[in-house]
Amino acid sequence: MEIAKRLQGVGEYYFSKKLREIDELNKQGKHIINLGIGSPDLPPHPEVIQTLQEEAQKPNVHGYQNYKGSPVLREAFAGWYRRWYGVELNPEAEVLPLIGSKEGIMHICMTYLNEGDAALVPNPGYPTYRSNVTIAGGVCIDYELKEANGYQPDLEAIETKDLSRVKLMFVNYPQMPTGQQPDMEVFRKLIAFAKKHGILLVHDNPYSFILNEHPASILSIDGAKEVTVELNSLSKSHNMAGWRVGVLCGAAVRINEVLRFKSNMDSGMFLPVQLAAATALSLGNDWHEEVNAVYSARRKKVYDLLDLLGCRYSKEQVGLFVWAAIPEGYKDGYELADAVLYNADVFITPGGIFGDAGDRYIRISLCGSVQRFDEAIARVNTQITKIRS
Ligand SMILES: Cc1ncc(COP(=O)(O)O)c(C=O)c1O
């Protein structure tokens, strides 16, 4: 059966393919240490699990749910935005719970893009922006994030491109994969740029609580809601990646437009998951401090590993990864990542999967215990001559 044209040019997700290869290597008796993927290995807060357990015992929670999410969860998201980001949201109209923020990216593309419409996507950036724009029939126009420019978009350079068909611009700070922190001045400029060109800014914000002292939302800027929507997620901030809970926040009119698509795609989330997510959103700073203390200890190990590999990196990065420039002598990050995988049985992510601007970089995830990092460092140390040759 011939697959639909919309999937042409969209390959299987890199991790989906690579994890299959790692499975094969493990079946052959290897014990690959996976430092590639950003799936938190720590559990959610015990109260979150308790809420799920208690709610799931009840007889009347198993039916289809409201397409706009439970009012309890919408209130909890609105309270969370007020408390941490200083943003007022109407829980009835400006908050749309999602089954993870990844699905929100697709909903937005399907809601706004006609065949041939364009979206500005960061390079390097989360690969899902590119694939979802393409699947929706749109065309991606890359904007490069350069280390020399602090990984911020160069709006003057973007304005030299043909923007006539651009309807969406994806932006993401703390930036994945570069770890660049948000800058309110840049957000202001982005909002002015979006207003000038009639573009909907989509700010993707899943990393604001990871090793970041100042969680920030683009929606805290005056007038942002006129041209901006924001995606957020509990996957990283609350160690709930497998639970699939995210949110779209923005003006009521945008939320209703996206709901038109989404309500035709799914039938809501299991109510106990939504109620447990509300518990997670009510956690205080202690929770984030506890989680960040763990990530901070791991990050020191990542620095040691990167030093061993001769990579260059900034210690100002935030988020769940460390992004690092590879040394001379390797063709690209793929070559270094493969040398580490096949010689030392350690998987790290080549930066090129985030766009060609990432070709000379690698990304290491903080989702592994200190013991695993120690083991990874020991393996790389033993094989360093082979890795370098
Ligand atoms: C930048 C970025 N946005 C969105 C997501 C998706 O997160 P979720 O688990 O909420 O779908 C990820 C996941 O890795 C990500 O890195």
Can you describe this structure?
The chain is built from twelve helices and 13 strands. With 389 residues, it is α/β, with parallel strands linked by helices. It folds into two domains: 5-43 and 286-383, Aspartate Aminotransferase, domain 1 (Alpha-Beta Complex); 63-283, Type I PLP-dependent aspartate aminotransferase-like (Major domain) (Aspartate Aminotransferase, domain 2). The protein has a seven-stranded mixed β-sheet with strand order 2-8-7-6-5-3-4, sandwiched between helices. Strand 9 and strand 10 (321-325) form a beta hairpin. Helix 3 packs parallel to helix 9 and helix 4 packs parallel to helix 5 (127-135). The longest helix has 24 residues, at 285-308. The radius of gyration is 21 Å and the shape is globular. Pyridoxal-5'-phosphate (PLP) binds at residues 38, 100-102, 126, 172, 176, 204, 206, 233, 235, 241, 246. Keywords: Aminotransferase, Transferase. Pfam families: Aminotran_1_2. Its cofactor is pyridoxal 5'-phosphate. This is Aminotransferase. GO terms for molecular function: transaminase activity.
Tell me the structural class: alpha/beta
Q: Compounds present?
A: pyridoxal-5'-phosphate
Mean pLDDT: 96
Q: Residue share in helices?
A: 40-55%
The termini sit apart by 45 Å
Helix count from the secondary structure assignment: 12
Give me the CATH fold name of the largest domain: Aspartate Aminotransferase, domain 2
Helix and strand element order? HEHHEHEHEHEHEEEHHHEEHEEEH
- The largest sheet has its strands arranged as 2-8-7-6-5-3-4
CATH H-level homologous superfamily name of the largest domain: Type I PLP-dependent aspartate aminotransferase-like (Major domain)
Strand content: 5-15%
Q: Please, how many domains?
A: 2
| Major β-sheet profile | 7 strands, mixed
Number of strands: 13
Q: Kindly provide the name of the CATH class of the largest domain.
A: Alpha Beta
EC number: 2.6.1.-
Domain Aminotransferase class I/classII large: 31-379
Organism: Niabella pedocola
InterPro entries: Aminotransferase_I/II_large, LL-DAP_aminotransferase, NHTrfase_class1_PyrdxlP-BS, PyrdxlP-dep_Trfase, PyrdxlP-dep_Trfase_major, PyrdxlP-dep_Trfase_small
